[in-house]
Amino acid sequence: MTEPIISFKNFSFQYESQSEKTLDNINLDIFPGEKVMIAGASGSGKSTLGRCLNGLIPQAYPGKISGKCVINGKELVESSVFDLSFDVGTVLQDPDSQFVGLTVIEDIAFSLENDQLSQAKMREVTRKWSKKLNLEKLIHRSPQELSGGQKQRVAMAGVLIDESKILLFDEPLASLDPASGAASIELIDQLAHKQNLTVIIIEHRIEEVLKGGIDRLVIMRDGKIVANDTPQRILQQSLLEKLGLREPLYLSALKRAGVNLAACQNIDQVSQITESQMSRKLTAWNDHTQLSRKVKKRSTLLDLNELSFAYEDASPIIKDLSLEIKKGEIISLVGRNGAGKSTLSNLITGFLSPSGGSIKFKGQDLLKMSVKERAQHIGYILQDPNQMISKTMIYDEVASGLRLRGLLEDKIKERVEKILRVCGLYEMRHWPVSALSFGQKKRVTIAAILVLKPEMLILDEPTAGQDLKHYTEIMTFIEKIQWENDLTIILITHDMHLMLEYTQRTVVLNQGKILLDAEPAAVLTDDETIKKAYLVRTSLFDLAERYKLPSATDFVAKFIQTEREGRV
Amino acid sequence: MNSHFLIGYNDKDTFLHRLSGSTKLIGFIAFSIIGMITYDTRFLLGILTFSLILFKLSKISITEVSFVIKIIIAFAALNLLMVYVFAPGYGMTIYGTQHMLWRSPENYFNLSWEELFYIFNLFLKYTFAVPLALIFLMTTNPSEFAASLNKIGIPYKTSYAVEIALRYIPNVQRDYRTISLAQQARGYEISKKAKFWPRIIGNAQILLPLIFTSLDRIEVVSQAMELRRFGQGKRRTWYMEKQFGKADYSSLIVIFLIVLAGVALFNVNGGRFWNPFKH
User: Fold this and answer.
1) Which chain positions lie within coiled-coil regions (chain A) (predicted)?
2) Do A114 and B230 count as a contact with CB atoms less than 8 A apart?
């Protein structure tokens, strides 16, 4: 039997600043050439485990270690980050923040420079790797200018160049659009085979990673390993759902249809999954479930008419775009990076002025209002709450919009306290913002906008990087305030789960135009749109197609409808 | 999309673009030092002409740098005015003669040829270095900056800090924009419509989130660098470093000769000042 390349024995770790162990008695062996996924909710210890693999623990994050951890023959406690960097290559979560070079080629060569290689040698090695990762045409560009998928490839080249045998990915999908994410997973798979690598992927988006095929799934909770098995066996037991993680969508659908997962073969691939009763059960469920088509009469809230926008001397970013948004709708705005999503929201909020066309809000001309005036009608919430919060205390943060509008302090108090109650922050009103979790900060930023009583909210990636629990928490909250205040909401997102589960209408942007404006289920089953907008089709669609259900779109819609009914 | 408020590298093919960044940096520093020390008007006029010729050779268009030049002119003018206001008689003290243009030396505010001449020398000092600095900044590939600094003896960690700062300017600009827009939507006026104080306060509101965002970035990037062995060795090599060529060596000789001429003039003049008033 081969020796494990990574071995944890009764390993525990406690950060210096924490009172409890973050990793608790870990026993894990990973063998050469294996592809292992480590999943778990935020705070489960999966990132900490990753930091042990590359030596950031204990060097950059000191703490108490007990037990044994051996990586490619090196004892963790006796090795520095530098020593381990020859064995383990790490690709961090956000490639944007780990680029150090001004151009792609310099970034790829970075570790070679530190190894003091000669320029000639560096040129030779970087040429080889930029070819392997198909970056040859990009080497003199700035890494920031690249698309998400290209960035990921640059980051990978910069690490693979060390020829280390172990590759560690820390949430590689978090900052990518769906299509680039799928491409990355495929690339990782190819490289692993070609270079004979051991790959460890830390992710909570399990379905996407499974698609690339992995050998083992390790699930962590509260610092312990709670499952460590082949994906097949874990999925058959429905362990993901039991542990509060997101199950692949097609499995949830099969369960709804009454298919016994334990009896399924090839359960980790939607294109190959089989079970003797599956076809019959799916067809029966599909026939039996009726779509309720409740059409509510709604008044128009926002009316964009032939809107255009271009920077000076450049091709237009928004071209003759017309869109009508009804009161009370929840809309998802999707499209690849650069499709014009943020430009469109900036035009609505007034950060940019259109070069042509009109924007009307309840019949009023929005273009005549200042940014500040528009903010009273339409609130805009950034992806990163840290970029929005400018006060140190929660109460002050929520009150600041009203104070700037010159309201009297007792009037402000009344409104702020009311909003804080709505948002479940009332008890914490005298807390400093820094004591809050990401989700709570998000709620503070929403509260600070809601206090201005807008009728419409634009949220940019409200759930990016959140695990299922926090995702559900944030979205339940948004649904609740939407319902209570009859808000109209636009969600800008890459997350197709979010779009399917929580929005009624999807607007797909491509090159400054609306490519498709339809129900989410229709968008994610339309191959042409999916391709152009860098989306990925939902696994439900594959299921419907394989079992020849009459309408894939209806099947997806029916599933989403039953899920929603289950939630209410 | 790149904003033009910063001057930056412009890829052209001239003699100066082909020179190694280290040579240009050495030239800039050497000329600046000798030029700051000497008050020999002939020498200053000489290097001013020299640097203007180089500027012409570098094919930098005036429009690219007009903004920076305007700022420098404004500051230089203000500075020269202040030099006069604080010590109108200083020129006479230095040169030891009194050739009056306006009022007598007993008045606090007076004007002499000596003072004018002194201020003219200062003016030359301020101006000759500007084309040289612009040449260094605009004909040196930023990727080569760090390598150049390292080559003239600055530790590589410090040199790399310069490169990282350059690398992060666009990120910080983007963060600033995003945060500023979000704050404006809340009601902070930082546009030109707002009065001075509300505008300052509005801008200060951006600072706190900007600092926190930047600190997060620093932590991530320093880890990313460590994971790729930055700081392991005593030295590092540079992918973008330009090797010294013939042109570099001859330029260094020219630089050396000019500096030598400057030093020689100290002897001829018997000090830092060239005094045309004494006969």
Assistant:
1) none
2) yes
Contact B101, B116 (CB under 8 A): yes
Amino acid at B207: L
pLDDT at B3: 37
pLDDT in tens, A255-286: 999 999 999 999 999 999 999 989 999 999 99
Give me the mean pLDDT over the A398-425 stretch: 91
Cis peptide before A58 (omega within 30 of 0): yes
Residue (of B269, B225, B231) closest to A101 by Cα position: B225
Return the residue matching tokens 């997973």: A185
Minimum Cα–Cα distance from A404: chain B residue = B187
Are the Cβ atoms of A388 and B238 closer than 8 angstroms?
A: no
Mutation target vs B (from A59, A80, A94, A97; most B CBs, 10 A cutoff): A97
Mean pLDDT, rounded, for B91-107 = 89
Instruction: Give the per-residue pLDDT at A1.
Output: 64
Helix A468-485 / helix A438-450 crossing angle, nearest 10 deg: 10
Q: Which of A92, A113, A380 sits opposite B185 (nearest CB)?
A: A380
Query: 3-class SS at A283?
Result: helix
- Facing B233 at nearest CB: one of A92, A114, A372: A114
Q: Are B41 and B275 in contact (CB under 8 A)?
A: no
Percent of residues, chain A, with pLDDT higher than 70: 99
The enclosing H or E element of A156 equals: helix A148-160
Distance CA A343, CA A353 (A): 10
For B161-208, how does the pLDDT look when each residue is reduced to its tens digit (9 = 90+)?
A: 888 887 788 788 888 888 888 888 777 766 666 677 777 777 777 888
Checking if the pLDDT of A49 tops 90, the result is: yes
DSSP E strands in chain B: the ranges are: 100-102, 111-112
Domain limits, CATH 3.40.50.300, in chain A: 6-245, 300-540
The owner of tokens 């490519």 is A515
d(CA B214, CA B164): 13
Considering only the beta carbons, identify the residue of B163, B166, B187 that sits closest to A372: B187
pLDDT on residue B194:
66
Burial per residue of B185-224, b for 16 or more beta-carbon CB atoms within 10 angstroms, e otherwise: bbbbbbeeebeeeebeebeebbeebbeebeeebeebbebb
Closest residue in chain B to residue A92, using alpha carbons only:
B224
- Judging contacts by C-beta atoms under 8 Å, the chain B residues touching residue A162 are 228
Residue of B nearest to A143 (CA): B167
What pLDDT sits at residue A345?
Answer: 92
Is A550 a residue whose pLDDT tops 60? yes
The domain defined by A300-540 folds into: Rossmann fold (3.40.50)
Residues 171 to 200 of B: which have CB under 8 A from any A CB?
171, 175, 178-179, 181-189, 191, 193
Mean pLDDT over A113-133 rounds to 94
Helices B21-37, B113-139: crossing angle, 10 deg rounding = 170
d(C-alpha A560, C-alpha B148), whole Å: 60
Residue B277: is its pLDDT beyond 90? no
CATH assignment, A6-245: 3.40.50.300
Q: Taking a contact as any Cβ pair under 8 Å apart, which residues of chain A between 300 and 319 contact chain B? A: 311
* B229–A97 C-beta distance less than 8 A: no
Distances (CA, A) of A43 to A26, A222, A512, B5, B215: 15, 7, 39, 43, 22
